Amino acid sequence: MHPDDTSRSTRRAVRKVWDDFSARGMASGAYTEAVRAPWAVRVLMGGAGWLGALFFQLFLVGSVFLAARDNGWAMALCGAAMVALAYVLYRRRLGGIALEQFALAISLSGQGMVILGAAKGVAFGRALESAGFWAGIAAFQALLFAVVPNRLHRLLCALTAWGALAVTAQRLIGPSALDGWLAYPWPLVGLVPLACVLLIAFTNNEAQLCTADRLDWAEPAADATLLFALGGALMLTGADRPWLLATGGAAPIGMHWHAGAVLAFLLAVFAAAEARRLELPNAAGLPAVIVALALGGLMAGAPAVSVGVLALGLALRRASLPWLGLGVATLLAGFTWYYSALSWTLLAKSATLAGAGVLVLLARVVLLRRGGTKELR
Question: Which sequence ranges are marked TM in the entry (predicted)?
Fold first, then answer.
């Protein structure tokens, strides 16, 4: 991890390791700690980069884009040139926050021009209805993820690729009884649990990835996967609301139940794996698995709650504050969205939420009494 991204305690630990290595003759020279610029300076430099990118794009609009706006493939070629420029700036590592933000803005604009130009070149309406077009967008984002070494750029590319995959899956499903945008949450029934499986795999293999020096691409991919899983779970949790509004109060389509059942199973699997890793006795490990399964089953109608709980577990496993914050925010939003659902009575929702709280409190009592381990305390 770069020194700029570490806390004071971590920097002190790094300094101590350096001093120990120097005392053993394994390192030479004085320890130099990078000085991080104040946040106000970083914000101003980032804004300067985006402002420079804005003027550069205004120049393109006046000189190239207006002439090529009716030619989709020419627009796509211009966008590809902008992406190539951003790639060169990133690869040469000329440094500076402003230049990195300039490259990011140019790349995002270029990607938009490539996609829009390709859609216009094929036939805009037909392209949007084609699964191949959206699969091409996912492949394009995957290519950029692989070749551009910037972390934020990789995060955005991976997140866009996930979204394109969801639309591709929806296009492959084909016409159904659902009309238009009402059908889009269906692919999330499979993609959200898949994203959770990948997150569990990443967390369990993070040490090996670090040893193999692969965290520079694995970490932004995992962050994007987490954002997609949390956002998709929130969409599934509230999927019955637009359906009920559009159909005048018909029965809910139940897609959140399908995802919730799979996520309950994944919670139990994660709890079992953690109990084994921590070497908990059966008196503590088995109740943990049962509680995870019961909680996931109780909240099967609110997949966002299950994914939020899983995100909390993964965050504690990784000691990651950003993941912890996202998990807490998703839990709050999931409970709120679930409580405002139109397909449940207030009595049923209140009983479910109260039952979930009682279950968690009882689980704590049982685990502390039967586990007797410091880890549980």
Answer: 43-66, 72-90, 102-119, 131-148, 155-173, 185-203, 255-273, 285-315, 321-339, 346-367
Instruction: Convert the pLDDT of each residue in 166-197 to its tens digit.
Output: 888 888 876 544 455 556 677 888 899 999 99
What are the start-end ranges of the H helices in 34-149? 39-60, 66-68, 72-92, 97-122, 124-128, 131-147
Residue given tokens 């965290």 in the structure block: 215
Residue 291: how many CB atoms within 10 A of its CB? 20
Write the pLDDT tens digit of every residue in 22-80: 777 666 666 566 556 665 666 666 666 666 667 666 666 656 666 666 777 888 888 88
From CA 140, how far away is CA 265, in angstroms rounded? 34
Which residues of the chain fall short of a pLDDT of 70? 1-15, 18, 21, 25-53, 55-69, 93-96, 125, 174-184, 239-255, 283-284, 341-345, 366-377
Query: CA angle, corner 64, sides to 63 and 70, nearest 5?
Result: 130
Q: Which of 301, 307, 312 is nearest to 261 (CA)?
A: 301
Q: Are 293 and 264 in contact (CB under 8 A)?
A: yes
Residue with tokens 């706006």: 69
Domain positions in the chain: 1-36, 41-175, 182-205+214-377
Coil/strand/helix, residue 24: coil
**Tokens 């392209």 map to which residue?**
127
